[in-house]
Amino acid sequence: MKKAIAKILSSAVLWMLLFSAASANEIEKYLSEKSNYDSAQVNAINELIKNAANDNLPEECLFLKVKEGIAKGVQYDVMLEAMREKTLVLRIARELLNFRFDTKNIAKAHIETLAEYLDMGMTVGGYNDVTRKAKSKKVGIDKTLQLLEVYVYLQKKGVEKKYTEDVYVSLLDSEMPQKKMSIIADLYVYAYKKKVVFNDAQEIIMNGIKLSWSQQQIRDQFRKIRVKEIKEEMREYNRQEGIH
After folding, report:
1. Residues 127/96, Cβ–Cβ less than 8 Å
2. DSSP structure string for 30-66
3. pTM assigned to the model
């Protein structure tokens, strides 16, 4: 999870710095020199990026997508469609953030981050459900997005929606640093796969962190719970089968 966070943040910072110094002419020059697109195709892509910039969307991530596509030899039609789709996701991300945080001045970095989460599989419904709860607790945009990384990570690991939402909400009042959040996310995934119910998992994880337990010590607690449950299930099985 830490690598995923770092990739999103480093990409956003790097390309904001790069694009801040890049004019439309420089982008057009890059496309003309590095791609095999004709002048009309170069102009179409350049116009799309300029329009995004004029609409206050994070144009640097669009330029990055172009560079990646050109490096892979992506055909023009495929590239243009991918750019249009990315622009649409960026607009949706901005709209969602504008509505949730009651402002029209959402930072481009925040728009790009939410767009990344949507691209990674987060649904608009899922976003609305959990950020509504964040807003009710007066949680700011930075922490809301930080915790959405945990939400998306758990979903990608196969954790069910209700369990994932419970984890998200439980962390809204937490002041854990990002490093701890990554550890907590991994522990919840482990607990879920061991069939530990959320309330038990939360108690074990938070107590373990409070007591400075290692991740292995916390995982051992989950295994003990599961072994106890298996023993109880076996006793019930023997009772039903009349085995003494």
Report:
1. yes
2. HHHHH----HHHHHHHHHHHHHHHHTT--HHHHHHHH
3. 0.80
- If you search the block for the tokens 């945009």, which residue do you land on? 141
DSSP state of 242: T
Distance between CA atoms of residues 196 and 192, nearest Å: 6
DSSP conformation class of 104: S
* Nearest to 94, CA basis, from 81, 82, 112: 112
Query: Are residues 152 and 120 in contact, defined by beta-carbon separation less than 8 angstroms?
Result: yes
The region, left, alpha or beta by phi > 0 then psi within -120 to 50, assigned to residue 73 is: left
C-alpha atoms less than 13 angstroms from C-alpha of 70 in its C-beta half-sphere: 18
DSSP, residue by residue, 188-212: HHHHHHTT--HHHHHHHHHHHHHTT
How many independent structural domains does the chain possess?
Answer: 2
Per-residue pLDDT tens digits for 138-192: 999 999 999 999 999 999 999 999 999 999 999 998 888 877 899 999 999 999 9
3-class state of residue 84 by DSSP = helix
Predicted pLDDT of residue 13: 46
Return the structure tokens found at 228.
Answer: 């106890």
Tens-place pLDDT, residues 183-233: 999 999 999 998 899 999 999 999 999 999 999 999 999 988 888 778 878
Strands (E), 144-198: none
Last residue of a domain, one of 88, 119, 150: 119
Q: Residue 15: what pLDDT? A: 44
Last residue of a domain, one of 87, 103, 119: 119
